[in-house]
């Protein structure tokens, strides 16, 4: 539009910085809804505007291949954040993963609506980050030390 300044992204919305902000939650033992909650909390704390989305992710090549329901995040810049599609669709390079523009995975279509998930208490976020294997390993180590 004439007279409107060009839309620019804030410096903290660069993909490299997003990757850093999300780096310690990428491997959290949660599914897409839990990851959306964790990422929402991180992005909110970092002051990054975003939307939590709920809907479907469908292959354009095979409409029978997809996930429903599915949660992901979108930024005003057009970037998508989805670290859980491969959990259900397999660890294939063509399946969306990470922080990306939709055209990076043009054979997939996200359809959904914004949802409000509210603020999650810090103690709940900490629980979501616990890997049960780590807890069991710690218990086994403690038991071995007592023996």
TrEMBL record:
Protein name per the record: Uncharacterized protein
**Native source species:** marine sediment metagenome
């Amino acid at each position: 539009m004439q007279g409107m300044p060009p839309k620019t992204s804030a410096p903290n919305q660069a993909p490299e910085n997003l990757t850093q902000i999300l780096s310690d939650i990428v491997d959290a033992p949660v599914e897409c809804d839990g990851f959306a909650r964790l990422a929402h909390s991180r992005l909110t704390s970092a002051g990054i505007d975003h939307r939590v989305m709920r809907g479907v992710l469908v292959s354009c090549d095979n409409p029978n291949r997809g996930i429903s329901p599915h949660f992901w995040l979108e930024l005003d810049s057009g970037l998508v954040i989805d670290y859980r599609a491969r959990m259900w669709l397999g660890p294939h390079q063509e399946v969306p993963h990470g922080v990306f523009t939709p055209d990076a995975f043009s054979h997939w279509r996200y359809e959904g609506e914004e949802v409000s998930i509210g603020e999650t208490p810090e103690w709940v976020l900490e629980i979501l980050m616990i890997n049960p294997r780590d807890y069991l390993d710690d218990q086994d180590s403690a038991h071995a030390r007592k023996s």
